[in-house]
Amino acid sequence: MAIPHWSQHRDIYPLSETSQNCMICIMNSTSLDSIINEVLHHTQTDPHKGASGLSDFILGAQDGLVNVLGVVLGIAAATNDARVVLVAGLATAFAESISMGAVAYTTTLADADLYQSEREREYRHIQEAPNLETKEIRDIYESKGFKGELLEHIVETITANKDVWVAVMMAEEHQLAPVDRKTAFRAAWVVGLSAIIGSLIPTAPFLFLPVSTSMWMSVVITALVLFAIGAYKARVTVGKPIRSGFEMMLIGTISAMAGYLVGVLLKVPPLP
Fold this sequence. Notes:
mainly alpha; 2 domains; 10 helices; about 0% strand; disordered N terminus
C-alpha cells in the first residue's frame, strides 16, 4: 500500500516552514506512518499543557478565596452582624474580581511590550555590534557542551538568519517568550471570573446560617477548595497532589486568619 505524502495531511497537521523542512529531513530515515504516530502522540495523546490559563485561574481563585475569607471573618468577628458581613463580602468580591481582571490585562500587555522592546533592541545590537552578538551565541552553546566544528556550524547556522538569531537571543539570553497581546482579554476574563467565584465561596454560608456557625463553615469550605486547587495544580503540572493541596490550604488559611485577628482586636458594638 502506497504511503501518502505528508503534504496531504497539512490540514490535519499544519506545519510551519521550519517544521516542514525538518519533516523532509526526518523522512529520509523514518517512515511516514511512524512520523504521523509521533505527531498524534505529541499533539493529542500527551500534549503540552497550557500553563498560562492554569496560572490565571489559580491566581484569581486563590486571591478571591483568601482575601474575601479574611474580610468576612474580620467583619464577623468585629460586628457579629450577618448583614454587614454580606455587604462587606459582596462588595469585596466584585471589587476584587474587577481589580484582578484589570491587573491580569495590564500585566499581559506589559509582558508583550517588554518582549517587543527587547526584541527590537536585539535587532539593533545585531546590526551595530554583530561580532559581539556572535560571540554571545557561541558562548551560549559552548556552555551547553558543544565544541569544535559542531559549535561553529551551530553559530554559523543561527547567525545566517537575523530572525532566528534574535529568537535565540530572546530565549537563551533574556529568558523571554513571545506574548500575544490578544491573550490579554482572555487572561482578564479568566482571572476576573475565577476571582469572583472564589470570593463568593466564603461569603455563601452567611446567607443561610448564624454568624458563629457561618464563620467555621466558611473556613472549612474555603480550606477544602484551596486544597482541591492545589492538588489539581500538581496533577496537571508536576509535584505531589496531596502535598501541594495541603500547602495551598495552609498558606491561604493562615493568611485569612490575619483578617479574623483584626476583627477580634477592633471589635465594635452590633448595629441596632
